[in-house]
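Session log. Operator J.P. requested a structure for one protein chain; no other inputs attached. Running the standard single-chain path with C-alpha coordinate output.
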Amino acid sequence: MGWSFGKKQSYELLMSSILISILIFLMAFVITDLIWVSSVVMVVGFIALTIGIFPLYLPKMISYLQVNLKGIEYYNIGSWKDRIKIIFEPNKFQLSCVNYRDMNDISVITARQNVDADVEMNSKSGVLITKKNHNNIFVDVSWYDTVDNPIFDRAMEFVQSCTR
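Structure written below.
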Protein backbone atom coordinates (compact mmCIF):
# COMPACT_ATOMS: atom_id res chain seq x y z
CA MET A 1 0.00 0.00 0.00
CA GLY A 2 1.29 3.46 -0.78
CA TRP A 3 0.79 6.73 -2.59
CA SER A 4 3.27 8.59 -4.77
CA PHE A 5 3.09 12.28 -5.59
CA GLY A 6 5.26 14.46 -7.76
CA LYS A 7 7.80 13.56 -10.37
CA LYS A 8 10.53 11.01 -9.88
CA GLN A 9 13.84 11.92 -11.47
CA SER A 10 15.01 10.28 -14.68
CA TYR A 11 17.76 11.00 -17.18
CA GLU A 12 15.57 13.72 -18.73
CA LEU A 13 17.67 16.64 -17.46
CA LEU A 14 20.94 15.06 -18.56
CA MET A 15 19.52 14.31 -22.01
CA SER A 16 18.17 17.86 -22.25
CA SER A 17 21.61 19.22 -21.35
CA ILE A 18 23.24 17.11 -24.06
CA LEU A 19 20.68 18.15 -26.71
CA ILE A 20 20.89 21.83 -25.81
CA SER A 21 24.70 21.60 -25.89
CA ILE A 22 24.56 20.11 -29.38
CA LEU A 23 22.32 22.97 -30.49
CA ILE A 24 24.78 25.44 -28.94
CA PHE A 25 27.61 23.76 -30.85
CA LEU A 26 25.69 24.01 -34.14
CA MET A 27 24.84 27.67 -33.61
CA ALA A 28 28.41 28.49 -32.61
CA PHE A 29 29.74 26.63 -35.66
CA VAL A 30 27.41 28.51 -37.99
CA ILE A 31 28.55 31.81 -36.47
CA THR A 32 32.30 31.16 -36.16
CA ASP A 33 32.95 28.37 -38.68
CA LEU A 34 35.58 27.02 -36.26
CA ILE A 35 35.14 23.57 -34.71
CA TRP A 36 37.41 24.18 -31.72
CA VAL A 37 35.62 27.40 -30.73
CA SER A 38 32.25 25.71 -31.16
CA SER A 39 33.43 22.77 -29.05
CA VAL A 40 34.58 25.04 -26.23
CA VAL A 41 31.29 26.95 -26.30
CA MET A 42 29.40 23.63 -26.23
CA VAL A 43 31.36 22.33 -23.21
CA VAL A 44 30.87 25.61 -21.35
CA GLY A 45 27.14 25.46 -22.12
CA PHE A 46 26.88 21.86 -20.91
CA ILE A 47 28.69 22.67 -17.66
CA ALA A 48 26.56 25.76 -17.09
CA LEU A 49 23.37 23.74 -17.57
CA THR A 50 24.27 20.68 -15.51
CA ILE A 51 26.17 22.35 -12.67
CA GLY A 52 24.57 25.80 -12.57
CA ILE A 53 21.13 26.24 -14.05
CA PHE A 54 19.37 22.88 -13.60
CA PRO A 55 20.46 22.34 -9.96
CA LEU A 56 19.14 25.79 -9.11
CA TYR A 57 15.61 24.91 -10.27
CA LEU A 58 15.72 21.21 -9.43
CA PRO A 59 13.64 21.28 -6.20
CA LYS A 60 10.69 22.76 -8.07
CA MET A 61 11.13 20.44 -11.05
CA ILE A 62 11.28 17.00 -9.48
CA SER A 63 10.05 17.06 -5.91
CA TYR A 64 8.75 13.64 -5.04
CA LEU A 65 6.90 12.28 -2.04
CA GLN A 66 5.93 8.69 -1.34
CA VAL A 67 3.68 7.68 1.54
CA ASN A 68 3.80 4.00 2.47
CA LEU A 69 3.54 1.70 5.48
CA LYS A 70 7.13 2.45 6.60
CA GLY A 71 6.81 6.22 6.57
CA ILE A 72 7.34 9.08 4.16
CA GLU A 73 10.07 8.92 1.53
CA TYR A 74 11.25 12.00 -0.36
CA TYR A 75 14.17 13.43 -2.30
CA ASN A 76 16.55 15.17 0.06
CA ILE A 77 18.19 17.54 -2.43
CA GLY A 78 19.08 20.37 -0.11
CA SER A 79 22.77 20.44 -1.01
CA TRP A 80 24.26 21.34 -4.38
CA LYS A 81 26.20 18.05 -4.39
CA ASP A 82 22.98 16.03 -4.06
CA ARG A 83 21.34 18.02 -6.85
CA ILE A 84 24.23 17.36 -9.23
CA LYS A 85 24.32 13.69 -8.22
CA ILE A 86 20.62 13.23 -9.00
CA ILE A 87 21.10 14.76 -12.47
CA PHE A 88 23.94 12.39 -13.40
CA GLU A 89 22.84 9.28 -11.45
CA PRO A 90 19.07 9.43 -10.88
CA ASN A 91 18.60 5.69 -10.50
CA LYS A 92 21.30 5.41 -7.82
CA PHE A 93 19.96 8.31 -5.76
CA GLN A 94 18.33 7.02 -2.58
CA LEU A 95 15.12 8.46 -1.21
CA SER A 96 15.30 9.73 2.36
CA CYS A 97 12.81 8.14 4.72
CA VAL A 98 11.15 9.43 7.87
CA ASN A 99 9.53 6.64 9.87
CA TYR A 100 6.20 7.30 11.54
CA ARG A 101 7.66 6.58 14.98
CA ASP A 102 10.15 9.45 14.42
CA MET A 103 7.43 11.96 13.47
CA ASN A 104 5.81 14.30 15.89
CA ASP A 105 3.49 16.04 13.43
CA ILE A 106 2.83 16.56 9.74
CA SER A 107 1.00 19.44 8.10
CA VAL A 108 0.29 20.64 4.62
CA ILE A 109 1.48 24.20 4.02
CA THR A 110 -0.18 26.34 1.39
CA ALA A 111 0.72 29.76 0.05
CA ARG A 112 -1.80 31.36 2.39
CA GLN A 113 -0.14 30.18 5.61
CA ASN A 114 2.64 31.74 7.63
CA VAL A 115 5.43 29.43 8.75
CA ASP A 116 8.24 29.94 11.26
CA ALA A 117 11.31 31.58 9.78
CA ASP A 118 13.38 28.63 11.06
CA VAL A 119 11.89 26.35 8.42
CA GLU A 120 13.79 26.31 5.12
CA MET A 121 11.19 26.45 2.39
CA ASN A 122 11.96 26.39 -1.33
CA SER A 123 8.39 27.12 -2.32
CA LYS A 124 5.10 28.30 -0.89
CA SER A 125 3.39 24.90 -0.86
CA GLY A 126 4.62 21.76 0.77
CA VAL A 127 4.45 19.15 3.47
CA LEU A 128 6.05 20.11 6.76
CA ILE A 129 7.21 17.13 8.79
CA THR A 130 8.10 17.81 12.41
CA LYS A 131 10.26 15.09 13.87
CA LYS A 132 10.29 14.17 17.56
CA ASN A 133 13.76 15.74 17.89
CA HIS A 134 12.10 18.98 16.70
CA ASN A 135 13.89 19.03 13.35
CA ASN A 136 11.64 20.22 10.55
CA ILE A 137 11.66 18.75 7.06
CA PHE A 138 9.92 20.63 4.26
CA VAL A 139 9.03 18.74 1.09
CA ASP A 140 7.83 20.81 -1.87
CA VAL A 141 4.39 19.74 -3.12
CA SER A 142 3.68 22.50 -5.61
CA TRP A 143 2.87 20.00 -8.34
CA TYR A 144 -0.08 20.29 -10.67
CA ASP A 145 -1.71 17.09 -9.40
CA THR A 146 -1.65 17.89 -5.67
CA VAL A 147 -3.87 20.95 -5.40
CA ASP A 148 -7.32 19.89 -4.20
CA ASN A 149 -6.45 16.23 -4.81
CA PRO A 150 -8.61 13.94 -2.65
CA ILE A 151 -6.01 11.15 -2.91
CA PHE A 152 -3.37 13.46 -1.46
CA ASP A 153 -5.79 14.41 1.31
CA ARG A 154 -6.36 10.72 2.15
CA ALA A 155 -2.62 10.06 2.19
CA MET A 156 -2.05 12.94 4.61
CA GLU A 157 -4.91 11.69 6.83
CA PHE A 158 -3.25 8.26 6.84
CA VAL A 159 0.06 9.81 7.91
CA GLN A 160 -1.67 11.82 10.63
CA SER A 161 -3.25 8.65 12.01
CA CYS A 162 0.14 6.86 11.98
CA THR A 163 1.91 9.64 13.89
CA ARG A 164 -0.51 9.50 16.82
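Operator note: The domain at 1-164 is CATH 2.30.29.30 (PH-domain like).
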